[in-house]
Automatic annotation (TrEMBL):
It comes from Ligilactobacillus araffinosus DSM 20653. It is found in: Cytoplasm. Its main location: cytoplasm. The keyword Nucleus does not apply. This is Isopentenyl-diphosphate delta-isomerase. Its EC number is 5.3.3.2. It comes from the Bacteria. Signal peptide: none annotated.
């Protein structure tokens, strides 16, 4: 096995090892104001929203996780089949491993066959050019491309990149890619400044990927033995901070929330704070590894029902109505929001 494919196996093993049942995304510091007389019926509620410009029937999806080795391909096959059965979108992990070595490509190529009834997105690191972005879409036959911004991860990764001139390539991809593009973080969060820059570049979709869930700096630090980068484990903005910091931009760019989502209430809070959709990786991977595909299907359908329960309590029939819900913040979050919006 080559070093890149082996790294994929290590990422999954360490991610599961570091998984925490309670995240630190700070959504617990957000309190929703529920209606005691909501005047609504659960069967009136629609979970329809948009993800990367596509109309979808569920506000959350299986976000980018892995792929490129025998072990991770097996996980991807199961995730793809679950996504297809539940009719929620599925995003692959980075396909760079397959583009650099075709021996690692077969697993990615099969995912489209497993997702005939749902959306498939694929993933690539920043710094790649338009031709490589097109190859990623051609390889997977995906409906859209995620490009991740992972400066800290690359610097901690022993074999990672050390050159980060990304903006021109991102602009060219945004201007000319034939399929929808989403730019995403990897667990340290996208700052309000970054989202503003991306919106000004004409990029229409971002995934905030806030601190609180899978931490790739911590994962890479576990992999290396020649230096200790644990001092970077807690850098970045939490998901709640990211959402509050980008509220003024939500009419300019479609926001996906991710970063340690653990339950239906956190999904709804993310939507209330301005997200159009929610990406979930770590929790779904944990469920799949521990309990298998059937348990994951049950978890997804339960989440959808619980989101509707919460929407009943809030008196909201649609996801867009959730954006109008009133909420309270902790004093700490209020202060952080003020500083982020200076």
């Amino acid at each position: 096995m080559d070093i890149q494919a082996h790294r994929k196996d290590e990422h999954v093993f360490i991610a599961e090892k570091l998984y925490q049942l309670k995240s630190r995304n700070r959504l617990d510091e957000v309190r929703l104001l529920f209606k005691n007389i909501p005047e609504i019926s659960k069967n009136e509620i629609s979970l329809a929203t948009t993800i990367m410009g596509y109309q979808v029937d569920s506000p959350f999806f299986i976000n980018a996780i892995t792929g490129g080795s025998l072990q991770t391909d097996k996980l991807n096959f199961q995730l793809a089949q679950v996504a297809n059965q539940c009719h929620i979108p599925f995003a692959t992990g980075s396909v760079s491993v397959a583009l650099k070595d075709p021996a690692n490509a077969d697993g990615f190529k099969q995912l489209r066959q497993l997702t005939p009834d749902t959306l498939l997105f694929t993933n690539l690191g920043a710094g790649n050019d338009l031709a490589t972005a097109r190859k990623a879409l051609e390889l997977t036959q995906a409906d859209g491309l995620q490009i991740h911004l992972n400066v800290a991860q690359e610097l901690v990764m022993p074999e990672g990149d050390r050159i980060f001139y990304w903006k021109d390539q991102l602009q060219n991809i945004s201007d000319h890619l034939e399929k929808p593009l989403m730019v995403k973080g990897v667990g340290q969060g996208l700052t309000p400044e970054t989202v503003k820059i991306l919106a000004e570049m004409g990029i229409q979709n971002v995934d905030l990927a806030g601190k609180g869930g899978t931490n790739f700096v911590a994962i890479e630090n576990e992999r290396r033995h020649d230096a200790d980068y644990s001092f970077l484990n807690d850098i970045g903005l939490s998901l709640a901070e990211c959402l509050l910091g980008t509220q003024s931009l939500r009419n300019q760019i479609s926001i996906t929330a991710s970063g340690g989502i653990r339950n239906a209430l956190e999904i709804v809070k993310s939507l209330v704070l301005g997200a159009d959709s929610v990406g979930i990786s770590g929790m779904f991977l944990h469920t799949l590894i521990k309990n298998g595909p059937e348990e994951l299907i049950e978890q997804i359908t339960t989440l959808q029902s619980q989101i509707k329960d919460l929407m009943v309590m809030l008196g909201c029939r649609t996801i867009s109505e959730l954006h109008q819900v009133h909420y309270l913040l902790s004093l700490a979050l209020i202060n952080d929001q003020k500083q982020l919006n200076k």
